[in-house]
Amino acid sequence: MSDCPFCEKKKEEYFQHCGHFFAAFDFFPVSRGHLLIIPYRHIPGISDLSADEEKELMPFIRYCKDRLNDEFKPDGFNLGINEGHAAGQTIPHLHIHLIPRYKGDVAEPEGGVRGVIPDKKKYRHLMK
Fold first, then answer.
1. Which of 20, 34, 93, 95 is catalytic?
2. 3-state secondary structure of 102
3. 3-state DSSP assignment of residue 71
4. What confidence score (pLDDT) does residue 125 get?
5. Residue 100 contacts by C-beta under 8 Å, 6 or more apart in sequence?
6. Is the dihedral of CA 19, 50, 40, 113 positive or negative?
7. Rounded to 5 degrees, what angle do the CA atoms 74, 78, 83 make?
8. pLDDT digits (tens, 9 = 90+) for 19-46
9. What is the pLDDT of residues 78-126, one digit of tens each?
10. How far apart, in whole angstroms, are the C-alpha atoms of residue 118 and residue 5?
11. pLDDT for the residue 115
């Protein structure tokens, strides 16, 4: 697609690539090493992946995570997908955020991805 920033990415901008996907650093990273895992094929969401793409996805994510561990030495990771306007997707081409996390990068990391809805982030008191 000609107006898609992911479809227009040049190979020299890739962090890593494989048969169906490439990884590139986020234009607006939330941490050092913030990667996007992007299918070459222009599709809007995770359910649009082919069986071959699904089979390759997790091993590729794992490989990228290992490379980030070696290069940036984070203390943890968040993995997330914004799919659809209500979820905050701004580019309608599937992309998976692989975000390295570092001790002290936020005051209270508990709840992790639950923080997309701030009032739902703290839940441990409900577990009693």
1. 95
2. coil
3. helix
4. 64
5. 31, 32, 33, 34, 68, 72, 74, 76, 77
6. negative
7. 150
8. 999 999 999 999 999 999 999 999 999 9
9. 999 999 999 999 999 999 999 999 999 998 888 888 888 887 777 766 6
10. 29
11. 82
The total of other beta-carbon atoms located within 10 Å of residue 96's CB is: 21
pLDDT at 126: 67
3-state helix vs strand vs coil in the chain, percent to 5: 35, 20, 50
What does the alpha-carbon distance between residue 72 and residue 115 come to, in Å, rounded to a whole number? 24
Measured distance CA(33)–CA(24) in Å, rounded:
10
Task: Clarify whether 42 is annotated catalytic.
Answer: no
Measured torsion, CA atoms of residues 67, 76, 113, 28, in degrees rounded to the nearest 10: -50
